[in-house]
């Protein structure tokens, strides 16, 4: 049977099933209005089972007050109509005779009176809207016992959670998750969603959080952050709750993990801990600062908020992409404690401590095809790494309101990182005929400690005149590190002048850096909803770097001045600016201009040289936010920024950490200037549960900083940062989601496109390079009550790179990821879960073709009262695919990497849920009866 016939039969079967479903189900519709005949938008219509009041389905009225709920199977249902500030309608509705639809006409809701009955029935609608907040009632979306918040979020319409736990709400990425309005272990959303129990949550609130400055001044600056706030049930604010898990499997694989929480109105205490050797990280590992000394600066343009101290230089000047899965084998050990304390309405404490130990072993094979005007060649590398790190992190925030007009906020974070890294590699460069050009062996050992601390003190004063404020943010930070290392390399060169080079070196490096500064902001209302903001930012960074390299000659160590480096730098930053904003009912507009003046002065002590640069730039900006409604929004943003070269990029000192790839700075480097335009549109139809998010951007960079490359006759690469012509990056993405009600399913579609055009120098030849990427993802989820979940998804990307100097060297590769997830709950006490991933990587340029099928299965049995215990048998990587693959393109090469990964293992585990039910009324009825409860009021 051919594929077209099979597809036709599939759609015929689907149409038949749909036709049958439509003939056996009916539709309920109506129009909701208030007593003044005005339509009620976003009211919730909930259909309940007559026998036990469990949730059947629900809908939401549109802007005209209309609602329509289809695919009702029951002959009679209990209809509940809810809207904030209005009395609830609760009545029995029966299926119409000789018809598949029933229109109730106009239903009038009455406003609630001040006096309420002493005894009322509490109404809980699955979804409600409160101004700019969408609120999901968690009990309406059932999950299996011991499920975490991440499992709950996957069931909420308009919310997506990918395989890594990243969250999108109405198409936008969620960057912050709060618990009862308070931060949970800092700002990482996954810490809350992966470690809190779903059944502890009363409501999930989706909101666009305004900036700290806007919350303080009351002046909307247009900045938004998609945020989730988890409201806890009152039952879970009485004592401890959490869970403990222990498991052991084949090949001595083990897992220990636990969480314990005690929440109340004024205190939150949480403990998290884990230890395993199965590549699981319970806590997110941040990309910590690279302690290599020197000063790097990045200042974003226009508005009040300023970032200084980010990356200082680009590698290629245009974005590069890759596709990969988790690599290597890891042992993780971690624990943490979070304490939030409200001492009073005026004083709040937010604090957390983390310890994380990670042991990571990597075996890696890399194949790279290099493109050069003088001729192409291949690069091959086999490497091993053994990385060990210990990290301690402390975060402390104190908020105190002196009175109604004055407040201060102190923020402190500190961390200590201990690192021990051993690596070894064998490399070879060959021409396209397979002849050796050079080959080398290298071993490297690096170990040391790094320390970081930052403190900010924010002082704020609000004048009696609304909108008139002044705030000052004082900043102090320190970074310090001490590293030592040993390098041994043997390099063999072939061709007309064959030679062998042996490098045996030891090095020591000490880095010390301090930064301090102040940001001052003053706002003044101008009348007519217009406001003026005056801003001044000052920052100074000082650093001392002492790197000594010694050549080992027999038993002696000889100082190598050419490779050693001792310098100190002072980076000073001044930036005055002004913003004017206009806030209307539906939109706000902010326009700003800043003058950025920076100076960079350094002394190269070993060479008796100085490096000095001064830069001045005007940085305009504009931001507009237009709200068509509570669930429909358009944003436009224009910003400018300056990417200034770091001292490492400016100093003409050789870095030969990799003897076949040498780095040398460029004293004549100029800063890069970037214009960024971005537009976002977000819409969520509460009546039809259709979400649409669209985004487009353009980045235009003048004097872009890229890494020029030159290859000598021995195929040794020398890399130097240079300025090139303008680089352009254009991109866009779309996320569209909608339900398929006859199939109890939801469909999400997300295409994306990116195009980059830039210049680079290869062997002193300036070449224009164009990279285009077209891809996207599609996902369909089928849910049948709390018993069955099925998810199918695909994520595909096509990336091509074109060269002006030789179009025949153009690159093309594909990365594909197909996924199927199945969850089945049956007989009240059993659960089955399966996850199948099919990864495919291929390249038309190199004929690389690699496929990786991954299958995980688990079977659970729930025991003890209220299913507080879970015994689980898990099969991980059942097909025993113990490799990881990455494929990426750079300015003049395409590369494929194959890495070791964790193979097949079977594990038996037990999870015990602590204090899962503290409300004695919480166990009444079968699952689903939590939808309705009794409330007594005075």
Automatic annotation (TrEMBL):
Cell compartment(s), UniProt: Cell outer membrane
Domain of life: Bacteria
Residue ranges, annotated region (Disordered): 415-434
Family annotation (SUPFAM superfamilies): Carboxypeptidase regulatory domain-like, Porins
Keyword Iron-sulfur listed: no
Biased composition (Polar residues): 415-427
InterPro entries according to UniProt: Beta-barrel_TonB_sf (IPR036942), CarboxyPept-like_regulatory (IPR008969), OMP_b-brl_3 (IPR041700)
UniProt signal peptide: 1-21
Main location: membrane
Keyword set, alphabetical order: Cell outer membrane, Membrane, Receptor, Signal
Residue stretches making up the Outer membrane protein beta-barrel domain: 461-760
The name this protein goes by in its record: TonB-dependent receptor family protein
Organism whose genome encodes this protein: Belliella marina
Lineage: Bacteria, Pseudomonadati, Bacteroidota, Cytophagia, Cytophagales
């Amino acid at each position: 049977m051919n594929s077209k016939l099979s597809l036709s039969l599939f759609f015929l079967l689907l149409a038949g099933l749909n036709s049958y479903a439509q003939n056996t189900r009916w539709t309920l519709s109506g129009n909701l209005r208030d007593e003044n005949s005005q339509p009620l938008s976003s009211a919730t219509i909930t259909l309940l089972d007559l026998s036990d009041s469990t949730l059947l389905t629900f809908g939401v009225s549109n802007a005209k007050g209309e609602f329509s709920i289809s695919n009702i199977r029951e002959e009679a249902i209990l209809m509940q109509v809810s809207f904030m500030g209005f009395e609830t309608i609760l009545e029995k509705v029966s299926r119409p005779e000789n018809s598949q639809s029933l229109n109730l006409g106009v239903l009038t809701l009455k406003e609630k009176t001040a006096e309420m009955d002493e005894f009322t029935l509490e109404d809980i609608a699955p979804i409600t809207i409160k101004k700019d907040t969408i609120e999901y009632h968690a009990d309406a979306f059932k999950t299996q016992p011991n499920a975490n918040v991440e499992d709950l979020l996957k069931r909420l319409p308009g919310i997506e959670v990918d395989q890594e736990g990243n969250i999108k709400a109405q198409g936008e990425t969620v960057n912050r998750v709060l618990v009862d309005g308070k931060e949970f272990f800092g700002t990482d959303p996954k810490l809350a969603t992966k470690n809190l129990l779903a059944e502890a949550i009363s409501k999930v609130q989706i909101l666009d959080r305004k900036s700290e400055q806007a919350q303080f001044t009351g002046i909307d600056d247009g900045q938004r952050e998609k945020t989730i706030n988890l409201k806890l049930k009152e039952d879970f604010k009485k004592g401890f709750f959490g869970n403990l898990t222990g498991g052991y499997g084949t090949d001595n694989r083990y897992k220990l993990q636990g969480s314990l929480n005690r929440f109340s109105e004024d205190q939150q205490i949480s403990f998290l801990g884990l230890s395993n050797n199965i590549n699981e990280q319970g806590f997110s590992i941040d990309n910590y600062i690279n302690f290599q000394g020197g000063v790097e600066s990045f200042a974003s343009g226009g508005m009040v908020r300023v970032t200084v101290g980010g990356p200082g230089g680009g590698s290629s000047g245009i974005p590069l992409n890759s596709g990969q899965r988790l690599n290597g084998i890891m042992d993780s050990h971690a624990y943490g404690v979070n304490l939030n304390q409200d001492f009073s309405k005026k004083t709040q404490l937010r604090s957390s401590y983390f310890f994380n130990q990670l042991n990571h072993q990597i075996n890696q094979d890399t194949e790279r095809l290099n493109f050069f005007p003088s001729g192409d060649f291949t690069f091959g590398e086999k490497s091993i790494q053994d990385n060990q790190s210990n990290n301690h992190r402390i975060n402390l925030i104190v908020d105190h309101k002196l009175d109604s007009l004055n407040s201060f906020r102190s923020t402190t974070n500190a961390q200590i990182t201990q690192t021990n890294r051993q690596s070894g590699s064998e490399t070879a460069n060959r021409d396209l005929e397979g002849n050796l050009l050079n080959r080398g062996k290298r071993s490297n050992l690096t170990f040391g400690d790094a320390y970081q601390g930052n403190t900010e003190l924010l002082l704020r004063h609000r004048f009696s005149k609304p909108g008139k404020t002044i705030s000052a943010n004082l900043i102090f930070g320190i970074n310090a590190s001490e590293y030592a290392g040993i390098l041994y390399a043997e390099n063999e060169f072939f061709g007309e002048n064959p030679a062998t080079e042996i490098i045996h070196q030891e090095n020591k490096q000490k880095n010390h850096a301090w930064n301090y500064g102040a940001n001052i902001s003053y706002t003044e209302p101008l009348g007519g909803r217009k406001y003026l903001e005056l801003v001044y930012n000052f920052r100074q960074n000082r650093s001392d770097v002492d790197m000594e390299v010694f050549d080992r000659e027999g038993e002696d160590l000889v100082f190598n001045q050419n490779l050693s480096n001792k310098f100190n730098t002072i980076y000073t930053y001044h930036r005055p600016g002004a913003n004017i904003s206009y806030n209307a009912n539906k939109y706000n507009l902010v326009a700003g201009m800043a003058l950025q003046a920076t100076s960079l002065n350094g002394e190269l002590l070993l060479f008796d040289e100085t490096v000095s640069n001064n830069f001045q730039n005007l940085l305009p900006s504009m931001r507009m936010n237009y709200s068509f409604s509570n669930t429909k929004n358009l944003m436009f943003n224009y910003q400018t920024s300056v990417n200034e070269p770091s001292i490492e990029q400016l100093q003409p000192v050789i870095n030969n950490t990799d003897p076949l790839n040498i780095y040398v700075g460029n004293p004549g480097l100029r800063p890069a200037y970037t214009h960024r335009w971005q537009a976002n549109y977000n819409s969520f139809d509460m009546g039809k549960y259709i979400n649409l998010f669209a985004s487009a951007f353009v980045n235009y960079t003048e004097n872009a900083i890229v890494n020029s490359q030159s290859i000598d006759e021995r195929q040794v690469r020398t890399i130097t940062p240079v300025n090139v012509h303008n680089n352009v990056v254009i991109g866009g993405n779309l996320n569209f989601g909608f339900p398929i009600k006859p199939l109890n399913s939801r469909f999400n579609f997300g295409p994306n496109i990116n195009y980059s055009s830039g210049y680079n120098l290869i062997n002193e030849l300036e070449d224009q390079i164009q990279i285009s990427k077209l891809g996207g993802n599609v996902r369909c989820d089928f849910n049948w009550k709390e018993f069955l979940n099925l998810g199918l998804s695909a994520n595909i990307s096509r990336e091509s790179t074109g060269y002006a100097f030789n179009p025949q060297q153009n690159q093309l590769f594909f990365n594909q990821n197909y996924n199927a997830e199945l969850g089945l709950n049956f007989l009240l006490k059993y659960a089955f879960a399966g996850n199948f991933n099919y990864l495919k990587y291929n390249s038309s340029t190199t004929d690389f073709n690699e496929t990786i099928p991954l299958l995980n299965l688990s079977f659970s049995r729930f025991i003890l009262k209220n299913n507080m215990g879970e015994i689980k048998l898990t099969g991980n990587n059942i097909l025993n695919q113990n490799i990881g693959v990455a494929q990426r393109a750079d300015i003049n090469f395409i590369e494929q990497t194959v890495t070791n990964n964790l193979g097949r293992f079977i594990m038996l585990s037990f999870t015990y849920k602590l204090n899962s039910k503290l409300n004695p009324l919480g166990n009444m009825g079968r699952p689903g009866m939590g939808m309705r409860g009794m409330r007594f009021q005075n």
